[in-house]
Automatic annotation (TrEMBL), chain A:
The name this protein goes by in its record: Cytochrome oxidase maturation protein, cbb3-type
InterPro entries: Cyt_oxidase_maturation_cbb3 (IPR004714)
A Pfam family matched in the record: FixS
Species in which this protein is naturally found: Actibacterium pelagium
Region (Disordered): 33-52
UniProt key word Transmembrane: yes
Keywords recorded for this protein, A-Z: Membrane, Transmembrane, Transmembrane helix
UniProt KW Transmembrane helix keyword: yes
Transmembrane segments annotated in the record for this chain: 6-26
Automatic annotation (TrEMBL), chain B:
UniProt organism field: Actibacterium pelagium
Domain HMA: 30-95
CDD domains xref list: HMA
Protein name: Copper-translocating P-type ATPase
UniProt cross-references to PANTHER family, sorted A to Z: ATP7, ISOFORM B, CATION-TRANSPORTING P-TYPE ATPASE-RELATED
Subcellular location: Cell membrane
Keyword Phosphoprotein applies: yes
Family: Belongs to the cation transport ATPase (P-type) (TC 3.A.3) family. Type IB subfamily.
Gene Ontology cellular-component annotations: plasma membrane
InterPro entries: ATPase_P-typ_cyto_dom_N (IPR023299), ATPase_P-typ_P_site (IPR018303), ATPase_P-typ_TM_dom_sf (IPR023298), ATPase_P-typ_transduc_dom_A_sf (IPR008250), ATPase_P-type_domA (IPR059000), HAD-like_sf (IPR036412), HAD_sf (IPR023214), Heavy-metal-associated_CS (IPR017969)
Keywords: ATP-binding, Cell membrane, Ion transport, Magnesium, Membrane, Metal-binding, Nucleotide-binding, Phosphoprotein, Translocase, Transmembrane, Transmembrane helix, Transport
Keyword hit for DNA-binding: no
Length: 52, 725
């Protein structure tokens, strides 16, 4: 049962990472055009180099 | 009712000089917004973005496919016109949007706020659920207490943050002495947290932290879906409004000054350019032209306009510039009187209670009484406050209103999303449910069943010589008949004859010289012809007998199919028009509509709709003109095309974005199946409550049972909602 001392903080930390990642995507306005994003990756533009 | 930049409503508007002025105003803000109604795929996105970025001076261009919009950052010398032309060349329809009217920032913020709360509650729920699983699978004593305390440490701040929207709504309702759905929700969440904390302090077994969080999470999901549906509808509605720019040209010392319509006063002299709409009621004091009254009266024939004629707000000036003296503005104008008629019609309409509201009215007091009774019962039976409170909390949690809070938004989101893809915008949240009850459909004629654009009839019967001369004369004019004539002759492969000295006589027509002979195209009186009862324009070459080109108002695409499928579905179809009897009869016969009425005044339309309603019919009104506005408001549910006047679109519950009428028949079917799903979900929820509530009341509901039951019901209703697609 001593394992719990490590496991609980680890699980909270990993979950927290996921939450932070989500907050980051939210801040970066990644949910404003879901339909466009689902189509954009089909286009070959900027495949060789990133968009300036 | 306003002069506007690039409306779809009138064919002659593109000549209005306003478009550039608006473009100029927008550039000051540094950003141009374009509406792109036809884009739909990855290729469209890259074509549009590449095309726009290729224009010199454009710094960046980004397409939003969800909103079908492009936002462009550009240098000051780039005009919107230029960009629209580039897109036209690429084959994409584009309209300028008034960026000032699209204040989406506030609603966007609300959406992000909800998402944030949803994410936090989701994170907390998963973590607490992990700890709870250990407790359920047999953790005891100190381990269980530790897990409960950790759960409490996660739950309390999360609930304080994530459940705020429910607490706020509940408080607002309670402080006004009313009950709404958020009251039982807040009570369930609050009570679950309080009893769990109490249990934890006393090292008890029954902590409902996971249930409180799951409840918050599921209900926030429902709230978010609801928000999405509304925000898409709202932004599209804002977009339609942004297509019209409410400004007029006031003459000050003979100079036209652009003025907001709200600032015009009686006696002002106002310049109305060809293609513009009358901003106020007035009297013509200078100029000659023709006026299109179809949006107000349903008449398809343009009216000759000269000095002394009274004009009403919303009429379209077709050929020559007119100067009018305002006789009534604001509240006195005919538009406002129409608005009053609408208000009266609306107040007469029964306030519709949505299925969800009806269910909530039963639900909220029901669960409160049930939970209070089990508390009192258990307290009297066992004399133990803790047990009684625990069971009351379990009852509140088990009766979680997920079917109401999650399933209804899930169904409406799925249904409105589906209709939006087909080009229908649901403005009112109960419109779908009302749509499902429709048994009578009333159509307006001009601009609704017909496109409102004249089309040349029987082109084969005219001589090529006549046509090519007419084409030459017409090509200089922006009159709808002239434009249509040019279009038709072009399609039959004709080239314009060489006519010299072209001159447009506003209000009459165009004249010129063909090999030294005078040729005229225009009104019957002007060319010395006998006027026909239908829409026509007349050509005279030299002294020869005039030739009449007859036009018909073309059917809107899908009109015949829509009427046919509505009739096949057993709906009664009625045609009410302000146009003349022969025109209405011809259309009714063509579409197979048996019941029709011509020369109907706005009041007649309302009365007819109200009569039908009082006979127990559920009327769907489809119309676009000012004369339909009151009838739209009086009907059980109403649809207007995007080309309709602002006032009609405001009064309608559903706006048809595309040109095609066909989605209407389909919408009735979708609405029916959506309503069926909602009812099914209520039944599922009822069955579930009938089984689970007794278990909770007799005190057998452990936190595990509560969690399983709640998740199972939420998932069942959501999956059932998704079956709609």
């Amino acid at each position: 049962m001593e394992m719990l001392v490590y496991l609980i903080p680890i699980s909270l930390f990993l979950g927290g990472l996921g939450l932070l990642a989500f907050l980051w995507t939210l801040k970066n306005r990644q949910y404003e055009d879901p339909e466009g994003d689902s189509q954009r990756f089909l286009s070959g533009d900027w495949d060789d180099k990133p968009k300036p | 009712m306003v002069e506007h930049a690039r409306p779809a409503a009138c064919p002659a508007c593109s000549v209005s000089g306003l478009a550039e002025d608006v473009a100029q105003a927008d550039l000051d803000k540094g950003q141009i917004l374009l509406s792109l109604p036809t884009i739909h795929c990855a290729a469209c996105i890259s074509a549009v973005e590449r095309g726009l970025s290729g224009v010199p001076g454009v710094k960046s261009a980004r397409v939003n496919l969800t909103l079908k919009r492009a936002s462009i950052e550009a240098a000051a010398n780039v005009t919107t016109e230029q960009l629209i032309d580039v897109l036209d060349g690429l084959g994409y329809e584009a309209h300028e949007l008034d960026a000032g009217l699209l204040s989406t920032t506030a609603s966007e913020k609300a959406g992000r706020d909800l998402l944030l709360r949803l994410a936090v509650s989701g994170f907390a729920m998963m973590n607490v659920m992990l700890l709870s699983v250990s407790v359920w699978s047999g953790a005891v004593d100190a381990t269980r207490d530790l897990f409960h305390w950790i759960s409490a440490a996660i739950t309390l701040p999360t609930i304080a943050f994530s459940a705020q929207p429910f607490f706020k709504n509940a408080w607002t309702a309670l402080s006004k002495g009313r009950l709404n759905m958020d009251v039982p929700i807040s009570l369930a969440i609050g009570l679950a947290v309080v009893t769990s904390l109490w249990e934890t302090m006393l090292s008890g077994e029954h902590a409902y932290f996971d249930a409180a969080l799951a409840l918050t999470f599921f209900l926030l999901t429902g709230r978010y879906l609801d928000y999405r549906t509304r925000s898409i509808a709202r932004s599209a509605a804002e977009e339609l409004a942004a297509l019209e720019v409410p400004r007029a040209f006031k003459l000050v010392d003979g100079e036209p000054i652009e003025t907001p319509i709200a600032e015009l006063t009686v006696g002002d002299h106002i310049l109305v350019k060809p293609g513009g709409r009358m901003p106020v009621d007035g009297e013509i004091i200078e100029g000659q032209s023709e006026i299109d009254r179809s949006l107000l009266t349903g008449e398809t024939l343009p009216v000759f306009a000269e000095q002394g004629l009274q004009v009403s707000t919303g009429e379209i000036n077709l050929t020559g510039p007119l100067i009018i003296r305002a006789t009534a503005v604001g509240k006195e104008s005919s538009l406002y009187r129409m608005a009053e008629l609408v208000a009266v019609a609306e107040s007469g309409r029964n306030r519709y209670t949505s299925l969800a509201d009806g269910a909530a009215k039963l639900y909220a007091p029901g669960v409160h009484i049930l939970s209070a009774l089990s508390f009192v019962g258990w307290y009297l039976y066992s004399g133990d406050m803790r047990t009684a409170l625990n069971i009351a909390a379990a009852v509140l949690i088990i009766t979680c209103p997920c079917a109401l809070g999650l399933a209804v938004p899930a169904v409406t989101t799925a249904a409105s999303g589906r209709l939006f893809k087909k080009g229908m915008l649901i403005k009112d949240s109960t419109a779908l449910e009302r749509m499902a009850e429709v048994d009578t459909v009333v159509f307006d004629k001009t601009g609704t069943l017909t496109s409102g654009f004249p089309v040349l009839q029987d082109i084969g019967t005219y001589g090529d010589q006549d046509l090519s001369v007419a084409m030459a004369l017409a090509s200089g004019s922006s009159h709808p008949l002239a434009k249509s004539l040019v279009e038709a002759s072009k399609q039959s492969g004709l080239t314009p004859a060489s006519v010299e000295d072209l001159r447009e006589v506003p209000g009459y027509g165009t004249e010129g010289l063909l090999n030294g002979q005078r040729v005229r195209l225009g009104r019957a009186v002007w060319v010395g012809a006998k006027a026909l009862p239908t829409t026509a324009t007349y050509l005279q070459i030299g002294d020869a007998a005039p030739v009449a080109f007859r036009f018909v108002d073309a059917l809107r695409p899908g009109a015949a199919e829509t009427v046919a499928s509505l009739k096949a579905a057993g709906k009664e179809v009625i045609l009410l028009s302000g146009d003349t009897a022969p025109a209405v009869e011809a259309l009714a016969t063509q579409l197979g509509i048996d019941q029709w009425a011509a020369e109907a005044l706005p009041e007649d339309k309302v009365n007819r709709v109200q009569n039908l309603s009082s006979n127990g019919k559920h009327v769907l009104m489809v119309g676009d003109g000012l004369n339909d506005t009151a009838a739209l408001a009086a009907a059980h549910v109403s649809i207007s095309p995007a080309t309709a006047l602002d006032a009609a679109r405001v009064a309608a519950d559903i706006v048809l974005l595309g040109n095609d009428l066909e989605p209407i028949a389909e919408a009735v079917e979708t609405a029916k199946s959506a309503t069926r799903r909602i009812r099914e979900n209520f039944q599922i929820a009822t069955v579930y409550n009938v089984i689970a509530v007794p278990i909770a009341i007799i005190g057998l509901a452990t936190p595990l049972v509560a969690a399983l039951a709640m998740s199972a019901s939420s998932i069942t209703v959501s999956l059932n909602a998704l079956r709609l697609r």
